[in-house]
Amino acid sequence: MSALKTARIGVDIGGTFTDFVLHDEARGITRTGKRLTTPDDPSRAIIEGVQRLLEETGTAASQIHSIVHGTTLITNTVLERTGAKVGLIATQGFADTLEMGRETRYDVDDLFQQPVPVIVPRNLRRGVPGRIMANGEEREPLDERELIAQVTDLVENEGIEALAIAFMNAYRNAAHEQRARDIVKAAFPDLLVTISSAVAPEIREYERTNTACVNAYVQPRVHGYLDRLTDELGALGFDGDLSIMLSSGGLTTIDEAKNFPVRLIESGPAAGAMAAAYIARQIGEDHLISFDMGGTTAKMCLIEHAEPHVKHDFEAGRLERFKAGSGLPLKVTVIDMIEISGGGGSIAAVDALGLMKVGPRSASSVPGPVAYGRGGTEPTVTDADLLLGYLNPDYFLGGEMALGLEAVRNAVETRLAKPLAIEEETAARGIQEIVNESMAAATRMHLAEKGKDPRAYAMLAFGGAGPVHAYGLAKLLKVRRLIVPMGAGVISAFGFLVAAPSTDSARGYFARLDRIDWDHVNSLFAEMEAAARLMLADTGSGQGEIRFQRQADMRYHGQGFEITVTLPEGTLGPERTGEVREAFDATYRRLFDRVVQNVPVEAVNWRLTASLPAQEISLAHAPVDAPAERPSRSVSFPGFGRMETRVYDRYALKPGTRIEGPAIFEERESSFNVGPDAVVTVDAFANLIVEISYPGLV
User: Fold this and answer.
1) What does the pLDDT look like over 321-334, one tens digit per residue?
2) Is there a cis peptide before residue 360, judged by omega within 30 degrees of 0?
3) Quick one: 32 and 110 in the same domain?
């Protein structure tokens, strides 16, 4: 008799650590884990972590119902330019679309501006005759002989590993692209082929072509990685479902991930936002800033009414992190967040001007911070946290990894304190203040772009370094309410388990609202709904009734940008045009506090989101029967200096417990601190709810 499959595992690969959460509802078990990431072979850390979880919980691999995984492989491949050699087949005369881009400079004041990177060089881009018009009609048939001649040359003489096909107006009529794909696959069965109408069937040639090229660029590497991971998990005895998180926060199948890997480009960071949304819904917090700080980066996202903000475009591999237009524009749905190079592994150094800088370089997992004792010599944010008293050198990762305090002192003294002629504690405090100010500035900018005030939001802090810096960041933003969930150090992995299996689809059809062919629109939604049902049927991570949400990208006639509008339910038709216009006006007014009268509205793209219900689980557990208070230690708090601080074992705290700061709360994967102006309460879900006072602030 086969074992019942009742366990689920979430796995998050970060730049420094790979995090794990195992949940078995039938046995009432939730167990977390953390291992150093193995950048040379990310699957190695996954296999080792899964094996350990199984041993610790007495679970057989055959009892695992599903494993949900997020990966930074796509992002890293694009950033490091380590993808496949890609060829592009375009409509004749349009092979230079990638080079021309938007025909604008992303920084008009920079005389030495670097050009936006092109993923496919000129010698690998070819045009073939054939033309689809903007209304979807064929003007010129596809030249199949020229197509096969050009592809043969690319494969046999140029040695391409993958091919992208992007024809003019294919979003409106994909017949030429589909025929070209079939011809190429018949001639070269092993060649991976991406067509733009499948990966991004939306208006705008440059973005659609670029998305197809990036998909082809990362596809061979993703195929190899997922095939290898599947084989290695199978060798453990795992025969359940392996799902991958999408950049939009939903879950998809391995086959879909291999076909459209570009949709995973923000896969890892999305999990944290989904976990934050789940916790917000659980505790009834409507306005939340999700703050996720790991070993390499920090990420901030707005969660409103238990839903993260999303957007339908993304720039990968920017030359300038905060300059729009300096990267590769992609038509993919992603969680809308801001990310900065500020993590526990961010390296602090003195620059040529004699100023201390923190990041963007990171010690990552190899060699890691100085405190890890793995060969690191340059002081990092984690090293400063240890020196200031936030971390317990004997209880890092629950005591599994001892931290070297003396080595950190020497590194900070040699690399920072002496060159700057300051005390080592001042140098450590400087590291923390710089990284906290950088995160605060990024958060303010992200909220200001949306017309939001951080003082009106609570903050949820997680990630290995998030709780360590949450109090300092909250003070800079004047956030009054701070929440730190149980298992904060592995909450992103938890996010994989509470995210709903879902899929996002889009179809391009441009028309004025008063001239729309509503039968065509309804057929587009029916087509997307049928495809979504098939995909979700193959997802083993959820069950129940599928929820559909229909939206459209709309704008005033003549505008150069669109807003996404939620459409009314039911069949659309001419009699409902007024409802659609009212939905547009309401959305536009909410975003810009005004509407424009007597100007026609036009729709550009039509979107469908389909999702299954998410599983309800909790990281809360019965408090351990042990003293909650541990030996106190000296901790340096911003604005207060060094203070003798009480230390608590988080696993021993009972719901309803109230503690006044200063205090440190230690758990296996992270540590959280508050100063004397904060009060901490343990809620029913084992979250730490912090109220920070600001005398004189209304």
Assistant:
1) 667 778 889 999 99
2) yes
3) no
